[in-house]
Amino acid sequence: MKKWYEEQSADSDVVISSRIRLARNIKGFYFQERMNRESAIQLVNKVTGLTKDLELKENLKFYHCSINKLRDIDKASMVEWHIISPLLAEKELETGLIVSEDEGISVMVNEEDHLRIQAIASGMNMEKAFLDADRIDDFFSEQLGFAYDDRYGYLTSCPTNVGTGLRASYMVFLPALNIAGKIEKLAEEIGRYGAQIRGIYGEGTKGLGHIFQISNKTTLGRSEKEIIDNLEKLMDQVVIQERKRREYLINMNSDEIEDKVYRSYGVLKYAKKINTVDALMMLSQLKLGMDAGLMKLNEPLNIHKLMMEVTPANLQKILGKSIGRGERDRYRAEYINKKLPQL
After folding, report:
1. CB 310 within 8 A of CB 336
2. Cα 335 from Cα 80, distance rounded (Å)
3. pLDDT tens-digit series, residues 247-289
4. Which of 215, 335, 206 is nearest to 283 (CA)?
5. What is the value of pTM for the model shown?
6. Is 253 helix (H, G, I), strand (E, B) or coil?
7. How far apart, in whole angstroms, are the C-alpha atoms of residue 177 and residue 190?
8. Whole-angstrom distance, CA of residue 88 vs CA of residue 246
9. Is residue 92 packed enough to be buried (19+ CB in 10 Å), middle (13-18) or exposed (0-12)?
10. Are 136 and 119 in contact (CB under 8 A)?
11. How far is CA 73 from the centre of its chain?
């Protein structure tokens, strides 16, 4: 089965993915701050025990596991593939996961809330992400029952999630705005309209390879449709700004941009050693060049997938063993050498 990041998508030159996350808590259990280990185990078993029923409802294969029992490298790999959050990977309390075969749907158990229902769609397709998440939400609501207040809506551990409990986000590729030093200004602009910009893995992370996340800030007092429509309108403007800035950069500095693109290709194709940050930056230069028509490869290449594959944990998973940083840098270069098609 194709993964979500292997699907053809609209506006993929700027928008990598659309994601919905729903924060939910189950009646009859203390919230995370007061939950003990026995209750955490009970909750994980209760939720993951519904995996087969979820498969029948969705007509899709799902898998489940206890995240806290996995090796650190396995947890880190799931973070790098955007299946789970960094917070879930770090939790010591009993945690669980249900994930679909295409990795587009995941249910994190005992993250910040009892459930974090996540749905990801390739490109600018928030409608699909919301419909997927909404169906999963209905299923668990019917089976478990959620903590809900008629006045405030869904009750959550973090006050900013109270209400709909919905966090909508776009993963975006913004090389031109970032090169021009416009990201801080963009953050100020969208902040006035109830949105925020974060790093590649969310809160507290950096925008590696010119990749960022843009999401809504608050959920109380607004419907799901209002939140999604508002973010979609903002995203339309971000796409326009990024494309205009790319056009300007290429028109004003076409030789310099083209030189960077081809230099990046040369290093990636023939380097014997390369670290994660350099690899992601050069792959992003390649993506910019291909999106702008400055470079053409003789075979299709999913650059975003390759960017995720060469992150530290995923690279070691591909190799099948744990290795040190120096050896990783050598293997990363070799892996990209082989994956990169000829011009």
Report:
1. yes
2. 17
3. 999 999 889 999 999 999 999 999 999 999 999 999 999 999 9
4. 335
5. 0.92
6. helix
7. 14
8. 37
9. exposed
10. yes
11. 18
